[in-house]
Each structure stands twice: as structure tokens, then as C-alpha cells.
Design a protein that fits this description.
This protein is mostly helical and 168 residues long. It has 7 helices and no strands. The chain is globular. 30% of the residues are buried.
């Protein structure tokens, strides 16, 4: 239990600082920015307390907002993503999620890709919608959402592949 707690705290801190110090300075073509901190939401234990997960997701978003001075849009996006996560898990993993026996590193690639892609897509759509907060900019919101989602999904899948424990 303690190793999982320290692992999650370490992951939280590392992802916040990585996002704030390095990834926020990356901006391709004016609208592609990686948001790797979503990885925390994806990897949080599936059997954990949902209320605690919502609170920690809010803290993650507020931590990013404090450094970016973005007025709470990351907190809102993280809360929405955390709220829909059980439905995404059920959609992507089906009966495995209902029986609480999912190990992300041991899941088929298609299920893992759908889970990561949908979670990132929802997070980014909420984030960019709140950032623009205008129906007049819907095409820009969609363009930023689609391209940043693709880039972030690739980055997350690479991270999962590089840093996953090999189970036999």
C-alpha cells in the first residue's frame, strides 16, 4: 500500500514539473502542445476511491493552473476527465473492468489505445473550449483538440511503452 502511495505521489510531482518546466514550452505550428500530465489520470489505480480520485484530479489541474496562471481551465478539464473515466474504462475494457482485473501493461493495444485516446480527447476538448470560451472559435478549438490529442496520445503511448514493467 505504501509503495503505491509513494509511487502515485512521485508520479504526480514529476508529471506536474515536467509539464510546467518543459512541455509547456513546446508549441508546434501554433496549436499543437503536449499535455503529458493526463498520464496521471490514466494510470491512477482503477480500484481506488472515486471521490478521492476526483479530489486528486482537481489538485492536479489546480497545480498546473497555478504555474500557467490559466484560471482553472486545467482543473475543470481534469475533473471532467476523472468523472468520465469509469465509463471510458467500461467502454474500452468491458468485462475486465467490471471484475476489477485490469493491468494496463497487459491489455491489448486496441483497448489501451481507445482508453488513452478518448480520455485525452475529452480532456483536451474541455481544456480548449474553456480556453477560447467562444462559439465563434469552434474551428480553432477543434483543430487544437484534434492535433494536440494525437500528439499527446503518441507521447503517452511511448511513455507507457518505455516505462512499463514487463510482466511474464
Amino acid at each position: 500500500m505504501n509503495s503505491k502511495l509513494f509511487s502515485n505521489i512521485g508520479r504526480f510531482v514529476i508529471l506536474v514539473f515536467l509539464q510546467v518546466l518543459i512541455l509547456n514550452n513546446i508549441n508546434f505550428a501554433g496549436y499543437i502542445n503536449p499535455y503529458l500530465y493526463v498520464l496521471f489520470l490514466l494510470l491512477y489505480p482503477f480500484t481506488g476511491n472515486q471521490s478521492l480520485f476526483l479530489f486528486i484530479s482537481f489538485l492536479l489541474g489546480v497545480s498546473i493552473d497555478v504555474f500557467e496562471d490559466s484560471g482553472g481551465i486545467n482543473a475543470a478539464a481534469c475533473l471532467v476527465a476523472a468523472f468520465v473515466r469509469p465509463n471510458l474504462l467500461r467502454f474500452s475494457f468491458g468485462i475486465s473492468y467490471d471484475h476489477q482485473n485490469i493491468r494496463l501493461s497487459a491489455t491489448p493495444f486496441g483497448a489501451k489505445l481507445s482508453y488513452v485516446f478518448l480520455m485525452v480527447l475529452i480532456h483536451h476538448f474541455v481544456l480548449f473550449s474553456l480556453e477560447m470560451f467562444s462559439i465563434n472559435h469552434i474551428l480553432l478549438v477543434l483543430k487544437k483538440t484534434i492535433f494536440s490529442t494525437i500528439f499527446t496520445t503518441i507521447l503517452i503511448l511511448l511513455s507507457l511503452t518505455l516505462f512499463s514493467k514487463k510482466y511474464r
